[in-house]
Structures are given as structure tokens and as C-alpha cells.
Amino acid sequence: MTSQQDKSRARRRRLVLALASACLVAFALLLALLHDPAAAGEAATSAAYRAELAIALEAPDWIIGEKLSAQYECNACHMEGDGSTAPLFAGLADAAATRREQLDAEQYLYEAIVFPSAHLVDGYTDAMPNNYADRLSPTEIGDLIAYLKTFHAEA
Fold first, then answer.
1. pLDDT: is 96 or 15 the higher one?
2. What's the rounded Cα separation, in Å, for the pair 123 and 69?
3. Which of 9, 32, 56, 130 is the most buried (most CB within 10 A)?
4. How big is the CA angle at 148 (ends 56 and 100), to the nearest 5 degrees?
């Protein structure tokens, strides 16, 4: 083997190692983003939610939302008990408007239903099912949001 061939092979090895390292770093960054609920929540902007909400809130019916809440047993964690399992519905309409600065009440409620891990209320664990985007139609999500907006804080 000539000296020129050795140099060429060494350059190729360095290039392959550099490419493999870059791929590994990119993969690690991707994994970090996918496993960080806060990063996922920040990536979902109010504009993205607004577009999805335009469909969901075309003609929301809070009565249907109430029935869906019972059907999916939301009341078990959000209405019964002392609120230690999950945030209670009582006062939710008011809290939703201020819970996340970059989201309005409807956007926050949408996120809480569709991406419940994106923002966890202090003191609660990530216990809410995260498959409502697959189980509910956009219209049903809008109906649930309309129902949740009926829960104001008691005066």
C-alpha cells in the first residue's frame, strides 16, 4: 500500500467518524425534544391551536360536551373528591384564561384535552389519558371545551 492510499483511507475514516458523530448528536437532540413535555408545549404556538380550534369551535354544544365528559368519565377525577387527583372543573373557565400566558382560555383547554402532558399544573402528575386526539373528533373537542367554559369560580 502506498502512502497516498493510507492518507486517503485516513481521510475517509475521519469523515465517516465526523458524520457518525453529527448524526448521534442530532439524534440525541431529537430524543430530548420528544421526551421534554415543556419543550413540546412551547413548540405548540397559539397560532397552531387557533387553526385547529377554528374547526372545533364552529358550532360547539356544551350539552353534548357534558355528555362526553360523563361518557369518558372525566368527572371521576375532575369533579369528585377534593381535587388531589386532578384539577377540578370548578373555576376552570376563569383559570384557563390565565394559566398559560401565551394561550387564551380556549387554546389552553384544547391543549389540556389533546396534549395533556404539554403543561402540568403544579402539584399534579401526568395521569390524564393522552389519546383524546384519537378518540374524539374536532367537533367533540369543541363541545367539551364549550362545556368546560361553563365552570366559573363561585362568587
1. 96
2. 23
3. 56
4. 85
Element holding 145 (H helix, E strand): helix 138-148
Residue 22 confidence class, pLDDT cut points 50, 70, 90: low
In this prediction, residue 26 has a pLDDT band, given cuts at 50, 70 and 90, of low
DSSP H or E segment with residue 2:
none
**By the 8 A CB rule, do 115 and 136 touch?**
no
Q: In percent, how much of the chain has pLDDT > 70?
A: 77
Could you state, in order of their start, the residue ranges of all structural domains in the chain? 3-35, 45-148
Nearest to 128 by CA among 56, 90, 70, 78: 78
Say which residue the cell 369551535 belongs to. 57
Do the beta carbons of residue 49 and residue 103 sit within 8 Å?
yes
Q: Provide CATH code, domain 45-148.
A: 1.10.760.10
Residue 38 has pLDDT above 50, yes or no: no
Torsion angle, CA of 63/141/94/117, rounded to 10 degrees? 140
- Joined grid coordinates for residue 104: 387564551
Tell the residue number behind the cell numbers 377554528, with chain if given.
54
